[in-house]
Design goal:
With 150 residues, the protein is α+β, with helices and mostly antiparallel strands. It is 21% helix and 28% strand. Strands 3-4-5-7-6 form a five-stranded mixed barrel. Strands 1-2 form a two-stranded antiparallel ribbon. The chain is flat and about 95 Å long. The termini are far apart.
Length: 150
């Protein structure tokens, strides 16, 4: 006569599995019993007051404001157009000759503007004072027609 293939550990795991399944069914039945079917629509509606807080009470109709459709703005605000023909001045903060790009710090706005070797009129190095024009590229502002200022 052969021994049973089920060990004590296998039997315990099976019992535990059945117990969890039974507990899950009991919780499911409890949720069904406590659920209030057909919730009232008024219980589910929330209102926003003039300060942006969510409340259960509807707003006062006397405080209602009319807003023109033209005044509603969707999305982010558009950036102001950049004057492209204005010659700016700045200092080269970084330039990598082997890779052919760098950055210029604009004197007026203190923003860092990308410069590529194709936009240079003459060779530049770090800490050179330069004059340049700005054009909008796919990733932001690019400096073009870059010249050293003496």
């Amino acid at each position: 006569m052969g021994r049973s293939q089920e060990t004590f550990n296998k039997k315990e795991k099976e019992k535990k599995k059945l117990r969890k399944k039974k507990e899950k069914e009991e919780r499911k039945e409890e949720r069904k019993a406590n659920a209030s079917d057909g919730n009232n629509l008024d219980d589910m509606i929330a209102y926003v007051d003039e300060f942006g807080n969510i409340t259960e009470t509807p707003p006062d109709p006397s405080k209602r404001k009319e807003i023109k459709q033209e005044d509603i703005q969707l999305g982010a605000t558009k950036n102001e157009e950049i004057e492209e023909d204005v010659v700016r001045t700045g200092i080269v903060t970084f330039f990598n000759e082997s890779k052919g790009y760098g950055f210029i710090r604009d004197k007026n706005s203190q923003e860092s503007i990308f410069v590529h070797i194709n936009g240079l009129m003459e060779p530049i190095k770090e800490n050179n004072k330069v004059s340049f024009e700005v054009e909008k590229g796919p990733k932001g502002l690019n400096a073009v027609n870059v010249k050293k200022v003496v």
